[in-house]
Every structure is written in C-alpha cells, then in structure tokens.
Give the backbone structure.
Amino acid sequence: YWKDLGVPYVEPTFPHGNLREIGKTQHMADITRSVYRELKEKTKGLGFAGMYFFINPVTMVIDLELVKNVLVKDFSYFHDRAVYHNGKDDPLSEHLFAMEGTKWRNLRSKLTPTFTSGKMKMMFPTILAVADEFKSCLSSTIGDRAGELEMKELLARFTTDVIGNCAFGLECNSLKDPQAEFRRMGKKVFQQSRLGIIKRFASSQFRDVCRRLGVTNTAKDVATFFLNAVKDTVQFRMKNNVQRNDFMSLLMELMKEGKGTDRLSMEEASAQAFVFFLAGFETSSTAMSFCLYELALAQDLQEKARECVREALARHGAMTYEALLEMKYIEMCINESLRKYSPAANLLRIATQNYPVPGTKHTIPKGQTVIIPVHAIHHDPAYYPNPDRYDPERFSEETKAKRNPYAFLPFGEGPRNCIGLRFGMMQARIGMAMLLHNFRFTLSPSMSYPVKVSTANTVYSIEGGLFLKVEKI
Ligand code: HEM
C-alpha cells in the first residue's frame, strides 16, 4: 500500500504489521520512536510516514504543522479516536474517551464544566486531605529514621484515593489498605498480558467484526465492581439526599435531565465514572514516579524544587490553592517528566472523511487510523537538544516561548484533548509539594539504574517498582 503510494514506511511482518514486538520486547513508545527516527528525514515535504497495525495501513504524522492540522485546524475530519467500544456487550467501554461523533460532542460539552478552575479550587481541600494522609502513611512506614520504600505503588494508591474521593465521593482507603478493591481493580486494568495488549490493538482496527463477535476488553470482575460501585453510590445519595460538588453529582443531574438518548442511563453514567477513574490515577501517578526518580538522581534539582515549595509556603503561611499556583519550579519539574516520559506515548485519531493532505498529492482515506508519535516528538533533538537529559529549565517561560507549542503534547491538543488536564496537574503538584517539603529522596542500592520501562503496561511506566531511600526532613 505505502510502496504504491510512494510514501516512506517501515517494512511490516505478517500478521502483526509493525507491532510484532509490542508487549514482548518493546513498548508502543519504542516502536513509534524508531519509525519516527528512521523516517523523519525521508518524509521532508510530505509530513507523514506509513506504518501497519496488523494488515491495516496507518498514517504516522511527523511534521508539526500537520500535527496542528489534524488536532485543531482540520478537527472536523479527525474528531474520533481509534478506540474500540461495544456498549451492548461491554457497557463500561461506552465512555468519553471512546465515544464518537455527535454523541461524544454532546457529552463532552456537558462534562466540561466539571473541570473549570472554580471547580478545581473547590476540590483542592479534598486532595490536600488525601495528601496529608499520604504523608502520615509514609512517616509511619519509615518510623524515625530513613527507610527504603517502593514509591510507584504508594503514588498509585495516593492518586487512587484522590480520584475516588473527588469523582465518586468514596473513601477508597487504598493508602490504609493496600488490598483495597479500588486499587486491585485499577491495577488489573493497566497490567495486561501480551495477548490482552494485542487484543486491544486488534479490536481497535477491526471494530465492526469485533462488535459482531461480541468482543469485550473489560474483565468481568472489573465491570461488575465498577457498575455496582456507581449504582450503590447513586442509590445512597438519592435515598439520603446527599449533595456534593463532585463528578458523581454532575452525572446524576445528567441522568435526570434531557429526553430519550440525551438522558444518561445508569450504565452510561457508570462508563463515564469508570473512565475518569482510570484516566485519572495511572497517568498522574506515573508522571509523579518519574519526576521523583529524576529528582533522586539530581539532588541539586531536588533541593531547588524543595526551596520553591518552602518559599511559597512562607509567603502564604500554609498550603493554600494560591500557594500551589506560585510553585512554578514544581510545575517545570512535572512538565519535564511529562516530556521525557509522556504517560500516553501516542495520540490516535481516525479520518472520518477523505482528507487531502495540504501541500501534497496524497489523501488520507476515510476510516484510516492516524497516529501522532508524542514520545518520539518529545525526544526529537530538533525540539529538545540532548533529549535524554532531564532539565526542567526547558519549561521556563523564556525557553517555552521559543519552541513550537505542538512539540509538547502530553495532554493532546484541540477539542479532543485531555478533559482532566487541570485536575491531573493539580493532584501531581500537591503530591510533589507535600513529598518534597517533608522528605528527602535518594537512590537505593537495591535498584538498578537507569530504570526500565514496562512493556506490559499501556501507560508508559517504570518496570517493577521505584525503590528509593526516603528520609524525614
Ligand atoms: C498527568 C495526568 C494526565 C495525562 C498525562 C493525561 C493524558 C491524556 C491524553 C494524552 C489524552 C488524549 C488526548 C488527545 O487525544 O488529544 C487524554 C484524554 C482524556 N483524559 Fe487525560 N490525562 C491525565 C489526567 C486525567 C485526569 C485526572 C482525568 C479525569 C479526572 C482525565 C480524563 C481524560 C478523559 C475523559 C479523556 C478523553 C477526552 C475526550 O475524548 O473527550 N485525564 N488524557
């Protein structure tokens, strides 16, 4: 296909196309990074390269101008994401991340008000309370002295409790109880077998056939757990007339208002709660893990970040929403982790109509998957000199202003970008500020460096654990 079109591509193998090593020796980030590196020069003037997911051709966008067209300028051609969903057999798959067309647009505009800065400010005290619990949990584990802790799991428990509290109004208790059901279920969704990863990709490519065959990607026990969690919460709130300023309340309103298909059913509401939970905890906790890892490697940067927290707290007298907004260096450190280790390694779209690629004789045909290789762009020396170096100064106002904004895409871009961006950044900032203010982190002799990336996780994350020496300050 690509050869006939005269488009540079990487030779595929049957039946996986370019995905042969996925979940085995490579993460999807490695695959797209190597295609990007090999073909960037050869695609000058064209702006894209060819790949294969199984037997299907996929367009990989390389030029940032074309990235902007796909995500923003020509959004009307690319409003859907190449994600499989099957509401009939797997109700939890019918969520905002996977929905298409008008149904997606209507729900997106209804859910957007949940994430305004005003709402973030209201949720701030809840997140702070979980951060305090996180601090107590670390303190009691290490006792008076320094101790070695596996921080990746602890951070995942922190974000699980935050999102459980803010989205469901539920105490997930995973900081207190590592075996808490919410944590167990969350883990199960992201840690997949190679077969599970391949099934996910295959179902995204052969959506109609899979729907006819009744293929599902959500494990039965996970589906039962989340459907019951939402049903119980809704029933409890209705019975006891509970009013809260959280995501669940908004969903309950959408279940009451509107007519016909406009009104959310219990299953549809559960699917939205499910995706907010999933999208909310793993991404943020991996971003924090990598940030902590880099700051443990570079003690001077860690000290600078700690100083930034101390100064803001001294100015405001306590950890307030306003103090948090002033912690610019913490934000720079998190952004640099999101650059170097973007939790979502790629963005996916489908062309919903034939798309003539500007300035070329080519057309992306209707139905074809389009991939934007975020991880590869974030490691391109043309945008980030010495890209494997961790350097928060890349996100100073001055340096940022000189860079093409489409070279930084951890939350995607355009109308279909991450709806939870503000919330994700807020919980990461609060978590990092609390950790650095109270503890010092150094490398542990029992861990090998540099850390490896897990090929079994859809999110770009550390293989095994992040063992660090943690010392009270
Ligand atoms: C550091 C944290 C986070 C990262 C790195 C992240 C990243 C992303 C990315 C890359 C996308 C796809 C964007 C695109 O295709 O252009 C996305 C979509 C989405 N994210 Fe996040 N996310 C984070 C936190 C959150 C949180 C906290 C929530 C909810 C509470 C959330 C909910 C969603 C949803 C619902 C979508 C689908 C939006 C749509 O299709 O309309 N995310 N996220």
Observations:
- The chain is about 50% helix and 10% strand.
- Strands lie at 48-53, 56-61, 147-150, 347-350, 355-356, 363-364, 369-372, 439-443, 467-472.
